[in-house]
C-alpha cells in the first residue's frame, strides 16, 4: 500500500553525479499525490510596534488544547481574502511554575517555526502579545480537525479502518514533512502522533504541527546535545526514549510516524494496555 514511502537509509544521486546519504525516512513521487507548492506569507515577530492585533481569548473560537496551551481560531476581519490563523496561547489556569515551562516551549516553537517553510508543516505567521497581555503564537490554520479527532469520530461511529487512499495520503505527506525537518533543517520533531497532524476538509491538505519540543540533530541524524530531553508522548515513544541511556535519532520520529499510521488502520491508541491508569497521554 505504501510503495511511495520508504523507511530505510540509502544512497541517492543528485544532479552533477554527487551522492549523499538520505534520511531514514524518504519518499518518492511515483504514483503519489502531488504536494501543493508552498506559498510564502509575510510574517511578523513581536516588537514594541507590531502591526498584528490579536484579540483576547473570549473573542476567538477555541479549536482545541494541548499540554499547557489552548489553540484558537482567529478570523482576520477587515482583511480582503485573508485566511484565518490558528493562535496558540498558554492556558491561563496553569500554575505559575508550569506556565514558565510552557512559555519557554512556546518561545522555542516560534523560533523554530519561523525558520520552516514546507507545505506539509503549518507555517509561522506571528509571535506577539494579545490584548489581554498574553504571549501568543499565530500560525497558518492547517485544518478543522486533527487526525486524532477523525480517528476518534470514526471509532465512535462504529466504522473500521480509514480508506487506503486516506492512509496513503497521510503517509506520504507526513513523510515529506519529516524528511524536510530531518534532512534540510536537521531537526527531530520529538512528538509525532495523530494529535499533531492537522487535516483540512476531506484530506485536502495534511500538515504536521507542534514543533515546540523539537531537538537539533547532528550530521549522523542523532540528537546533537545528549543533555536535551526527548519529551514525546508515552504511547508513541520509541524504546530508546524509555531507556535511561537510549540514543535518540531521526528513527525516533520514524517509529512514532509508523504508529500514527497504525492508528489509522486500527482506530486505537498504541500501547494502551501498557499505560498506567494514572498516566498522562
From TrEMBL:
Protein name per the record: Lymphokine-activated killer T-cell-originated protein kinase
Domain Protein kinase: from-to ranges: 57-281
Family matches, as PANTHER family: LYMPHOKINE-ACTIVATED KILLER T-CELL-ORIGINATED PROTEIN KINASE, MITOGEN-ACTIVATED PROTEIN KINASE KINASE KINASE 20-RELATED
Annotated keywords: ATP-binding, Kinase, Nucleotide-binding, Transferase
Superkingdom as given in the UniProt entry: Eukaryota
Membrane-traversing stretches: none
Top-level taxonomy: Eukaryota, Metazoa, Chordata, Craniata, Vertebrata
One protein family per Pfam: Pkinase
GO molecular function: ATP binding; protein serine/threonine kinase activity
